[in-house]
Specification:
By secondary structure, this protein is an alpha/beta fold. The chain is built from nine helices and eight strands. A hairpin with a 5-residue loop joins strand 5 and strand 6 (about 135-140). The structure holds BIS(adenosine)-5'-pentaphosphate (AP5) and zinc ion (ZN).
Length: about 220
């Protein structure tokens, strides 16, 4: 099962991808996570990406297209994958089509999460992630058992550098200008599965699973 999760910053793409990954035993491929790992490791790609990410802008297409193309060729993608945060521009979507054609793979659905702007800001400002295992929490909607500590591994919870209000605004602009057109792009292919992302994490997951079954 080859899926894309589409939606604005904070819509719940990562949260839902992790649940789908467990359910279907296929990997979540998050370009955001891959880029953050490259920044932390200070690889040449990470050094190049850092300025764009800190500003809340998209990293250039050629950088992201290259890492996804390589990732899709790895053996764990044989039975499927969940693309989280890619594609984000029309050229990225075109490049993905090309890669999939070369790999003789087809998309099953593009899950598009619909969430109001006020809810997005609340989700992003309240998000915390474990420094050790990467698990994502929300101070109000999905809190850890103990303040500041990962329930899964006892690692320290931190706020993402780009989850501050001015950067969030810039990320939203980038979404509206460069990523929102992908809704029409995939609607035209008949793959778009529009999901109300305002419900609880569990109910959104249920809606995705029902939508996938029906599609
Ligand atoms: P990336 O890491 O992809 O960030 P994003 O798209 O801004 O998405 P987020 O991770 O912020 O949100 P999400 O939708 O995954 O929400 P989550 O599940 O965490 O990208 C970061 C940067 O990398 C970009 O700005 C760009 O610079 C670069 N980049 C990445 N990909 C790129 C690409 N393809 N091209 C170019 N540049 C790229 O949920 C958010 C919070 O809400 C959490 O706390 C969660 O617990 C909570 N929550 C989730 N669901 C619910 C719910 N239903 N109800 C209540 N709370 C919920
Ligand atoms: Zn942890």
């Amino acid at each position: 099962m080859n899926l894309i999760l589409l939606g604005p910053p904070g819509a719940g793409k990562g949260t839902q991808s992790v649940l789908l990954e467990k359910r279907f035993a296929i990997p979540q491929i998050s370009t955001g996570d891959m880029l953050r790992a490259a920044v932390t490791a200070a690889t040449p790609m990470g050094v190049k990406a850092k300025g764009f990410m800190d500003a809340g802008d998209l990293v250039p297409d050629e950088v992201v297209v290259g890492i996804v193309r390589e990732r899709l060729q790895q053996s764990d993608c044989v039975s499927g994958f969940i693309l989280d945060g890619f594609p984000r521009t029309v050229p990225q979507a075109d490049a993905l089509d090309e890669s999939l054609a070369q790999l003789k793979k087809k998309l099953v659905a593009v899950v598009s999460l619909q969430v109001d702007i006020d809810a997005l800001v609340e989700r992003l400002t309240g998000r915390r992630a474990c420094m050790n295992c990467g698990k994502v929490y929300h101070l109000k909607f999905d809190p850890p058992a103990a303040d500041g500590t990962c329930t899964a591994c006892s690692g320290k919870l931190v706020q993402r550098d780009d989850d501050h209000e001015d950067t969030i605004r810039r990320r939203m602009d980038a979404y509206h200008q460069q990523t929102a057109p992908l809704e029409d792009y995939y609607r035209r292919t008949g793959l778009l599965l529009s999901i109300d992302g305002m419900a609880s994490i569990e109910n959104v997951q249920q809606a995705i699973l029902s939508g996938l079954q029906a599609s």
